[in-house]
Every structure is written in C-alpha cells, then in structure tokens.
Amino acid sequence: MRRLLLFILGALLLGAAAIWLIQQDQGYILVSLGTVSVEMSFWLGVIIFVATSCLFIWLLLFLKWLLAAGGVRQWWIARRAVKQTSQTAKGLMDFLSGDWSLAGRGLKQSVKDPALSKVSLLFAAKAAANNKQLDQAVDLLKRFSMEYPEQKGFADLILAETLIDVAQIDQATEILEADKSDNKMALRLLTDVYCLNSDWISLSTLMPKLKRKSVFDEKDFKALQIVCFCGLLTNIDDNLPAKVKLQKLESIWSDVPRSLRQIPEIIAAYSDGLAAADAPEKALSLLAKALKVNWNRCLLEAYGRLDIKDGTKQLAIGEQWLAKYSDDPLLLFSLGRICRRMGFLGKAKDYIKSTIERAPSVGAYHELAAVLELLGDTKTSSEIYRQGLKFATQSKTEKV
Q: pLDDT value at position 195?
C-alpha cells in the first residue's frame, strides 16, 4: 500500500514538472511533412520523444518475452512435450497390448523427449526383440549405452533377456556373469540361464545370494531349491569311479536342508544317484522307508526304476503293498517292471495288463510289448506297440 502511494505521488510530481516545463516557453519544435506541419514547445517535444522511446523499448522487451522466455516459445515447447509424452504413453500401451511393431514405431518417435528418452529407448529395444528384430534391438541398446554410459547396466540386462529368448544362452550368461550390479532382474536372469544350461553347481553357489536379496518369494525359492538339489544329485560325472561318485553324492545330500529331505522329488533323485553309484540296496531301503511314510507317485516311479541284481527283496516289499494299494496302477506297473527284470515274465505280463486296464499309458503299452516279445509272441507284441502308438497320438490330439 505504501509503495502504491509513493508511486502515485511520484507520478503527480512528474506530471506537475512536465506541465511547468511546457509553460516555460523556452523554444519550440517545428515538424513539417509535405503540406502538414506540427509545431510544439521544446519541452513537450522532449516529453513525447521520451514517452515514445519508453513505449518502443517496452514493446521490444514484451515481444522478446513473448518469443523467448515465455509466451509462444514456452507454448511451443510445452505443446511438443505433451505430444511426445502422448507418443510415449501410446507406445507403452501398445507394448502392454502386445503390438510390438506399433509399439516400436511409437517409442522410437518419442525418444527426442529428454525426460522420457531413456524409458523410450529401452522399451523400443524390448519391443523390437519381441518382434524378432534382434539386430534393431541391439542397435537401440548400443545407442542407449552410448548416450547414457552411467546406466549401461540396464541395456545389458535387456540384451541378456533378449538373447535368452532367442536361445543364445552362452552369450547371455557371459553378459550376466560380467554384470556386478546384483539387482533382482540380473539375479533372476542368471538363475534362468543356469537352469537352461543345467549348471546346477553354479546355481547352488548363487542360491545364498538369491535368498539374502529375497529375489523370489518363499514358495518359488523352495521350488528352485528342489530343482537345484535334484539336478546336483542326478548329474554327477558318469566317468568317475563308483566310490568317488558315492562320496560326492553323500556330500551333496549332507548339504540338503533338513526341511527338504522329505520332499519326494529330492528323495527320488537321491535314490537314482545311489543306483548310479552302485549302491542300489541303500536306495531300496531309502525308498521303502519313504513310501511307508508318504505314498507318492514320484517315489513309486523311482522304486520301479530301481534295478537291483537280486530283486527278490524289492519285489517282496512291493507285493506287500498290494494288500493296501491293490488298485494303484503305478504300483502294478512298477511290480511288472521288477518282474520283467527278474525274468518272471508271466507275472510281469499280468501286472502290466492290469495297469493298462486301470490307467493306460504309453509306457505301459511299451513295457507289455517288450514282455510279450521276450515271451516269443512277436505278433501280439507288434499289435501292442501299434496300440501304444495310437494311444500316444490320441493323447497328443486331446492335449492340443
């Protein structure tokens, strides 16, 4: 309020001074243009000149603001920003809808926006990769790495994911193992490549870090542990002596957490490993004890796979279970396989026929045909093979 009063007072004083100067009549100015002439006092001419100059300067400054600091330029910049943001949003929506080609075009057009260029480049590269345009995806990721070298890791991770999708696992593994960021995406991708390569030793080394960083939830981490330990237990070098294989197997089993030692898949894998290390009797004892506690398909299949020179005990234990599980087709099938290995072809034939009556499967048809062939009934064996093939074809058609 005080400033306004001072401004009004100053304006009044300047006006009064201007009137006083005009009244002094200390000369005049004559302006003549053709037939038109204008005459005024000197001070009036000075006042008009100063006022006109100030107005001109103000107009220039206003025009500069309008075109530069604000106004038209800012409107134009804001308009471009809104347009490019809309392009980015549309590109991302196309990406989410699975239209990779349209998403790639839209996102590449929006990379001019500095605020969104990082996101646009990465998603454009991912869209190109999903559209099977690997070279274009690699070029976009290289461009990202050059423009944003401090964030090159993001491009490397997307490149590794792209390589995994096109089954170039070795190149993806090399990129991921060189990455030291240890973020969750990198660890997930590294887990994927180790599983795809069946590199269970590397995966087991990675497991503590996966747990520490909570890369997977509890359920998924437990499933990954099961896969990892099953892989370790069943993939010991076959060229090693049986004694060394058994030592390695026992060492791996000792590393299995107690909470996982009752998992059927892990017990079955351990049993298969024991059989491969020339310790089938130990595997038989393990499976018999486990099946007594937990009647499980996975354990029963492992029991039927177990090949022991003298299968008398194995057959006796299995036939004792018939009293309780006489209609279990998998038990009947396992007993048929054991009898076939022992040379009891008549019993094997009966068990496997009973299996097919209850739950036909390709494996059961194949096993029955093999038994009939051993019995010398090649004609019936060939017919059973054909039935098995027909069953397999029908099963595949039903799944499709």
A: 93
Of 134-148, 200-214, 280-294, minimum mean pLDDT range: 134-148
Angstrom CA distances, 30 to 23, 38, 41, stand at 17, 6, 9
Query: What 3-state class would DSSP assign to 30?
Result: strand
Q: Which residues pair with 33 in a beta bridge?
A: 36
Q: Which residues are paired to 36 by β-bridges?
A: 33
Using an 8 Å Cβ cutoff, are 194 and 182 in contact?
no
Domain locations along the chain: 107-213, 216-308, 328-400
Q: Which CATH class is domain 107-213?
A: mainly alpha
CATH of domain 328-400: 1.25.40.10
Output the CA–CA distances (angstroms, integers) from residue 316 to 88, 287, 307, 322, 339, in the order listed: 70, 14, 14, 10, 11
pLDDT tens per residue across span 297-311: 999 999 999 999 888
The answer to whether 107-213 and 328-400 have equal CATH topology is: yes
The number of beta carbons lying within 10 Å of the beta carbon of residue 33 is 7
Give the three-state DSSP class for 257. Answer: coil
**Could you tell me the two tokens for 339?**
């009898």
List, for residues 348-380, the tens digit of each pLDDT value. Answer: 999 999 999 999 999 999 999 999 999 999 999
Q: Number of C-alpha atoms within 13 angstroms, CB side, residue 17?
A: 8
Residue 294 contacts by C-beta under 8 Å, 6 or more apart in sequence?
262, 264
* Residue (of 84, 83, 127) closest to 105 by Cα position: 127
Q: List Cβ<8 Å contacts ≥24 apart for 155-159.
A: 155/122, 155/125, 157/183, 157/185, 157/186, 157/189, 158/122, 158/125, 158/126, 158/129
φ, ψ of residue 190 to 5 degrees: the values are -65, -40
